[in-house]
Amino acid sequence: ILLMGVKQGEGFSEAEVEEARACFFALHTVAAYGYKRLEVEGDSLNLIRRLQSKDTPNNPLGFFISDILSLSSSFDSIVWQYIRREGNNVAHALAHLQPFECSVRVWSEGGPSAIHSLASTDMCKFIEISI
């Protein structure tokens, strides 16, 4: 893991908007750390398809997609990849990281040990799915 982070806050929108909010946070964070080539994985198939097709509906989700696509133009390359929920345990665990704090936490080294073991599990599942 090169970089991981979480932005927890109060309130909640519909799931797809929250997925888009998390994606925007991730892109903003990796840009600040100087990464230029990305593969973005998400378990919201609809969001990934919208990002791939650059579809920006006229609603709150569309505003996030527009911001994501605008920010994505600052990278040398970016690939949007759908991954099933059972292969995305790291993202789910980070989103629910305890203690819950209304704050931003980013780790460029180390990080919660439980996340590293989940990453190994996710990679094993990915390899099984890909073979």
Automatic annotation (TrEMBL):
Transmembrane domains' residue ranges: none
Entry-linked Pfam families: RVT_3
UniProt domain RNase H type-1: residue ranges: 3-96
Protein name: RNase H type-1 domain-containing protein
GO molecular function, one term: nucleic acid binding
